[in-house]
Amino acid sequence: MPPGAEGGVGQRYQNGGWARHLHGLGPIAGLVLLCIAGTMLNSNFADIDNILNVLTRTSFIGIISVGMCFVIISGGIDLSVGSMAALIAGSMILVMNALTGVVDSMMLIIVLGMVFAIVMGGLLGLAHGLLITRGRIEPFIVTLGTLGIFRAYLTYLSDGGAITLDMNVSDAYSPVYYGSLLGMPVPVWVFLAIAIMGGIVLNRTAFGRYVQAIGSNEQVARYAAVNVDRCKTLTYVLLGMCVGIATVLYVPRLGSASPTTGLLWELEAIAAVIVGGTALKGGSGSMTGTVVGAILLSVIGNILNLTSIISVYLNAAVQGFVIIIVAFMQRRRS
Question: Is 273 helix (H, G, I), strand (E, B) or coil?
């Protein structure tokens, strides 16, 4: 090796490490700047009630984004999570209403409904995973198809209207959304717990390393004796369970499910993951960045609502532009 080459390589590696570190801080810096701008535009933005409201509304998409992060890192995608949430919510309400005439304990009805929602989410995710890995169908095609199927079945079950939770069950169930613990809303605590567990699984387990290896180079992962099909399937099962948990927290908010429930949640979840720094092509990502990305998008929506800079009806357009811009920046960086 020529004199000084070793030092040059070390210096380049060190510079690359600093570059990756600074890139990881990008979403956090963006969130801080947005919060400062929001406070300057409207002083009500910094009120504790508004902050808690933003975090509570973030919790649904944030929990789904944790599962979506695994799927995207593995090189997949899921366009059906909003429709899946709608179908789970409607089915869950029907089950809980049916149990009111059979089970005397309201607490037991609620617990059974929660378990049903999470299991149903896992099974729907399993169906996605098997169609993609065993059926050899592209994730985009599978989830685009189920996006329509899930919402159509919810529309059928609701007869085009809304499925409403029994009033007595709704009253007993409402603290799951409206309750708080140590001054923090319950959904925020659940979001925090899911995010921490997701970070541990992604960064501290063999499964997390396999997911990243598959997204980086699936063929090499197969040569390294990684069970690619099983890992991919598990990422969709995990995402489905996250959708189920998010639905469990969402149902007591309105006490009903309709064909518009969960509309565009897939856009928000994908945007949160991509804005958080996860590569759209897979292979790398950060759970911390995903959490920050979900909060950042909610802050954008909240600022638009408080300031009326543009119409609130354009919130989805803003999220769409964010996805395109970040994807373009990732492509240029590559």
Answer: helix
